[in-house]
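cron nightly-structures :: item 1 of 1
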Amino acid sequence: MADQLGSGPGAGRGTRHAVVIGGSIAGLLAARALAEHAEQVTVVERDRFPEEAEPRAGVPQGRHLHVLLEAGQRAVDQLLPGVVDELRACGARRVGMPEDVVQWQAGAWYRRTAATAYLLTGSRPLVEQVIRHRVLADRRIRAVPGTEAVGLAGDATRVSGVLVRERGAGRVEEPRLIAADLVVDASGRGSRAPQWLAALGAEPPREETLDTGLAYATRVYRNERHGDDTDGLGYYIVPNPGQTYGGVALPIEGGRFLVTLSGLRGDEPPTDEAAFEEYAGRLPDPVLRNWLAKAEPVSAVHGFRSTANVRRRYDRRGRRPAGFLVTGDALCTFNPIYGQGMAVAAMTAVVLRDALADRRRTPTTLRVQRALFRASRQAWDISAGADKKMPGAIGDAARVTAADRPADWYLSRVQERANGDPAVGAAFRSVLSLMEPVTALFAPPVARAVLFGPAREAPKRPPMWRESDDS
């Protein structure tokens, strides 16, 4: 595809008006990236934005635990300098791994040695509100809330705008056109772009799916006695093929904790309040259930079931129009248990900005879309790579190939040694936090330790206190 994204000599250098479908984190950050290349950016959002940091209907997972991985923190600060400090000032917590968390993974407790990677925790509504206020303070960006995108204008060769309809109680408005030189779909997991493209006579992308049937439930707690039992900030029990229950408790703003329990298809965590805490007894250690017994619940229990990994291959050649890009969960959505979504949204927004600014190459639709795909690839490999080992995984991406077996063998040794070997642990966390590519696990010092080094004995009991420097 040789068509340029914009209407002038190149995308960004001739784009007068860009429209972003979706006002969630991916859409807001995409709008911020586009503002450096377009005269005007319009964000179309079907919800009306809340005044306070509250969950909204268009983010069905918004009541559940979210973390911003370290690579995501770096990316969002590139787009909105100082926003990470602003989030921390609003109460989001900086959690060092493995130092600050009592963690069970790969069948063993993790030693609480010095942190080499950091999570930023805060409720999803808080993170979105802070980012939204920063983005919409830019005069080049305007939001059109309470408005639903219902289709694309144009034809199979070029998109010329978005058809929208105002949402309101009992009203059925006729669609109207918002003309645009560039349209970016950031409408999330439920994107209707494949159907919209088909309606233009274009070719929808092929979808890859992998679904473990994982489901989770979340409740907000306070625990005034938390510090009596541990100097850690939270708990994290990671499921695996042999132990399929998960549990996590991490601090958010306002002195609260978000607690999430997870299980697989047919054994989902309940949303009944008493049964929720009983379900924590299925975890491989009672430490989290004991914590819940001392905590005060301050919300109802909310469940979530839509956790499949889905990747839409817009990066492949096909009869698709110029002037249309897809990003965020509309492009690639991950099992939320891995906490990658917000980080990848920020990383792809940086890639979008940089791809449109690249004067060495004409930023065609396909070229930019491939750059966005590459930005999400490592997160997909981590999420799908782990999920395909889970019992009952289904989907066309669930097949284990012959090439997977030696990689799985090596990665299992990485996990066994990440607990005790500093070089292996630091490399493992840098990859999981998306700060370094997977090749960091094969660097000579790491490979030597993985292939020839011993696996250090793990703690026998939950490590409630940090290790001292001379441990």
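cron nightly-structures :: done
The longest strand covers residues 147-154.
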